[in-house]
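Morning. Coffee machine broken again, so started the prediction first thing and wrote up yesterday's gels while waiting. Chain of 473 residues, entered below exactly as on the submission form.
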Amino acid sequence: MAFRGMKNLSIDSITKITDGDLYMPDNGLGESAESVTAEEVRGVVADIRFVDNGSVYVAVRNDTLDGHEYIRTAFERGAKLAICEELPDEFYGPCLLVKDSMEALDKIAAFYRQQLDLKVIGVTGSVGKSATKEMIAGVLMEKYSVHYTQETFCDKPSPALTLLKIKDEHEVAVIEMGVEAPGRMKELAAMVNPDIAVITSIGICHIDNFGDRNGVFKAKTEIFTGLKEGGKALLNGDDDKLREIKDVNGQAPVFYGVSDTSAPYHVNRIRDHRLMGSEFTLCGEAIGDTDVELKIPGYHMISNAVAAAAAGRLMGLSETEIKRGLEKCHALRGRNEIYYRSRMTIIDGSSNSNVTSAKAAIDLLMKGEGVKIAILGDIASLGSDAAKYHSEVGAYAAKQGADRIVCVGEMSEAMQRGAKNAGISDSNVYCYPDADTAADHVKDYAIADSTVLLKASKAVNLEKVLEALKEEF
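Came back before lunch.
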């Protein structure tokens, strides 16, 4: 296969973009330094597994690994350049020394974005951004060549790495933009420079950094700072905070909704809502009345589908293309994915959680058959009010009618307390300090002919409980 470079990205240009210091080895090049540094690179990656001939390897440090340990391996696999915060003891190839490798990655991605001639849709929100991103991509694939956020780095989607995988054949990119700290969205917005900015919701998430929903609102809406001139803001009209927005960079936002039937894109009628999905009628500008059968669990997924439909219309898709795209969509792994066992139905929401999504998952559980068992783990990043919020989730599960509630993690006692205060009997609420212990005791709380929900932040590792349930039932 012929070498295919990235437009205007060479060692020379990357050195200028990052303001780094380039160190060249004394031997092993076999050709002039000028020719090596001027040639376009083939890709930019931060995961050693994806290094191949002609790529740039960015050595990143985090809490669990140090990418600098793999610089030699990167060159052995054909890397043209290693970007690092500390030079290796031996030079195996050109190394670019920078102050911050992640910052350098963002700068490269921002530069590359400006070389690209395609439409970019940025998706953010407290709840539903991953599912909405998937649905938007699925709809747009009915007409365009679409690139969208799939890869993660350190268990989080990386807008920079997504941008750097865009190729000439792509016509649209759909980029998931999650933030955990104030100010980060401005940086991402400048990098992604979206033509359409989608916000799905303003919820209770990362409160330890944002303070309250007002802080979350401020952080999420900073996506507008990078919106292209004439770009559209697509907002969930069912969200009270988002509904307050009247102007985005001199233009009225475009609203979608389920409850908000005054929104330009909305649901006219929900014909059926069941465990495995929903049937509803879409209405909207140039959509008409379009019947959709969505095969993704969860009432809140209807809202995500309407967002995707609205994005499709803004991108010129027909109602037939929108319907076809939505009906091909499926649940993401660990996000309300359903497993049918011979004696049990399992709803796997073990990959992420916040207060809003936990309540939505409990609502989904109540659509199941037999005994309803809610296995609820810790929700991350709730700050000083963590105990209050976990108690609230436990109470919600009890009030909605869960037959058994299993609380897992450091906040399990607070969740258990909320469930008991809401009326569930002591014999039907269980408390375990971690997922390993909960997995060891599945026989104590799980029974046949039941529907089981697993919902927690990823760090809780409820996947262990999922595997124990699969083995037992």
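The first helix runs from residue 11 to 18. Going to sketch it on the whiteboard this afternoon.
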